[in-house]
Amino acid sequence: MKFKIALFISIMVLVHGRIARAENEVPADLATAIMLKALNYDRSLEARSGDTVTIGIFFSDEIHQKKYAHEMYRGINKHKSDGKLSVRSLPVDVKMIDKDDIRPFTQQTLVEKFKEWRISVLFIVLSDGKTVDDLITVTTLLKINSFCLEKHFLKHGATIAIIENDNKPQLFINLDASKNEGSDYSGKFLSICEKMQ
Questions:
Q1: Contacts of residue 63, Cβ cutoff 8 Å, sequence gap at least 6
Q2: Residue 19 confidence (pLDDT) above 60
Q3: Does the bond joining 104 to the residue before it have cis omega, within 30 degrees of 0?
Q4: Can you tell me the distance from the alpha carbon of 126 to that of 109, in angstroms, rounded to the nearest whole number?
Q5: Structural domains of the chain in order of their starting residue, each with its CATH number
Q6: How far is the C-alpha of 6 from the C-alpha of 51, rounded, in Å?
Q7: Of 91, 101, 146, 193, which has fewest CB within 10 angstroms of its CB?
Q8: Higher pLDDT residue, 83 or 157?
Q9: Which runs of E-coded beta strand occur in 38-138?
Q10: What dihedral do alpha carbons 67, 166, 128, 27 form, nearest 10°?
């Protein structure tokens, strides 16, 4: 009987884990590692970041997005506590940004908050196109490098999308958005990305 219960629980955990991740979504720990590695290839990051690279993880109160954002946050802080985290020789800080905490939710409020928090990189964990449009307007204005998990957000103006394809991570870059946000990625990095305009 115990074996049947254990087997049932194991199957439910496996099924639940599969359902919880969105289709083509890279696991949070892998997306975090890829983003941190990619940032090392942005030759203009130091000029835009100042003395610290501050990564904002922007999410909504939707349970999956919130969990994903928290996993990314924990991953970055784990690397920091190990003393192994720097991007282009700069220390890294991380800020969780819950959409529901931005009041009123306007582009002007986003500009003020992002400046106050000194955000230099924004990882967007959202599926709401209107909110992404507002975020991209602000990242372009403030020259903040943007990452997302959905390829179609590159058409909204996000710079880099990290998705899963055939159980492997795949990188897409919007070259125009990259320039608009002030990024200057090396040819070595661009060679591993699928380019979009």
A1: none
A2: no
A3: yes
A4: 18
A5: 24-196 (3.40.50.2300)
A6: 51
A7: 101
A8: 157
A9: 53-59, 92-98, 121-125
A10: 20
Nearest Cα to Cα of residue 94 among 19, 131, 39 = 39
Mean pLDDT of 15-27: 57
Nearest to 86 by CA among 41, 122, 40: 40
Q: Is 114 exposed, middle or buried (0-12, 13-18, 19+ CB in 10 A)?
A: buried
Selection from 57, 44, 17 nearest residue 146 by Cα: 57
Secondary element (H or E) of residue 23: none
Distance from the Cα of residue 88 to its chain's centroid: 18
Tell me the pTM.
0.86
The two three-digit tokens of residue 4, written as one number:
């049947």
**Whole-angstrom Cα distance, residue 60 to residue 45?**
27
Residue with tokens 């409020």: 109
The alpha carbon of 133 is separated from its chain's Cα centroid by a whole number of angstroms, namely 15
Alpha helix ranges (H) inside 102-146: 107-117, 129-142
Report the SS3 class of residue 166.
Answer: coil
Angle value at C-alpha 32, between 28 and 38, nearest 5 degrees: 140
- Residue 93, both tokens: 């800080």
Distances 83 to 38, 59, 91 between C-alpha atoms, Å: 19, 27, 10
pLDDT of residue 196: 86
Radius of gyration of the chain (CA): 17
State the DSSP H helix or E strand holding residue 120, giving kind and residue range, or none if neither: none
